[in-house]
Amino acid sequence: MPKRCILGVDPGLQKTGWGVIHADNNQLSFAGCGIIRPAVKAPLAERLHYLHRELQTIIAQHMPHEAALEETFVTANGASTLKLGQARGALMLSLSTAGLDVHEYAATLVKKSVVGVGRADKHQVGMMVQTLLPTARAELEKAGEDALDALAIAICHINHSNSAIYDRKITRKSG
């Protein structure tokens, strides 16, 4: 399988994590990560536009072949869930506009894929991501947990797309 570039995205309206990895056969390498932070006090439409625009810039810089996003989980606070859904929509628009295949994964599947346990804690996920991508440590110290989660989502996608049991039904073809 040729070298692939995967963009992982951990959606959020206040902070969206992103991470880019390259996969060459079973060899992973770190390409970049960071956080997109819209102005907290800006109107919702401006924040969504900022997420869209910044992700387009990241896509142009790293030129990924595919993208992976964490699925939305419903919370007791309906307003928060709705806003997260709007942020995901803006981010998915950026990915789709770039012509990327967009894949979605549940948080428990990401943890199971990276750590081996679907109920793994943040520390366990962090340790495994840093083990798989040792050159990411310095960037992750600056960027934080949301970027780490985005890298974990990208790793999950690599693991699942390389699997013989990969189910194309979870794939949403963009464009």
Question: What features would you describe in this structure?
Answer:
The protein has 175 residues and is of the alpha/beta class. The protein has a single domain (4-173), classed as 2-Layer Sandwich (Nucleotidyltransferase, domain 5), CATH 3.30.420. 48% of the residues lie in helices and 22% in strands. The chain has helices spanning 44-62, 78-97, 107-115, 122-132, 137-143, 145-162; strands at residues 4-10, 16-24, 27-36, 66-70, 101-105, 171-172. It has a 6-stranded mixed sheet with strand order 3-2-1-4-5-6. Strand 4, helix 2 (78-97) and strand 5 (101-105) form a beta-alpha-beta unit. The radius of gyration is 15 Å and the shape is globular.
Give a short synopsis of this structure.
The chain is an alpha/beta fold. It is 48% helix and 22% strand.
Topology record:
Layout: E1 4-10, E2 16-24, E3 27-36, H1 44-62, E4 66-70, H2 78-97, E5 101-105, H3 107-115, H4 122-132, H5 137-143, H6 145-162, E6 171-172
Average pLDDT works out at 89
End-to-end Cα distance, whole Å, is 24 Å
What global shape is seen? globular
Alpha-carbon Rg, integer: 15 Å
| The CATH topology | Nucleotidyltransferase, domain 5
Helical content band: 40-55%
The neighbouring-strand order within the major sheet is: 3-2-1-4-5-6
CATH homologous superfamily heading: Ribonuclease H-like superfamily/Ribonuclease H
Q: Please give the number of β-strands.
A: 6
Q: Tell me, what is the CATH class?
A: Alpha Beta
Largest sheet: 6 strands, mixed
CATH architectural grouping: 2-Layer Sandwich
Which series of helices and strands comes N to C?
EEEHEHEHHHHE
Low-confidence stretches: 164-175
User: Would you tell me the structural class of the helices and strands?
Assistant: alpha/beta
Proportion in β-strands: 15-25%
Given the structure, what is the number of helices?
Answer: 6
Tell me the count of domains: 1
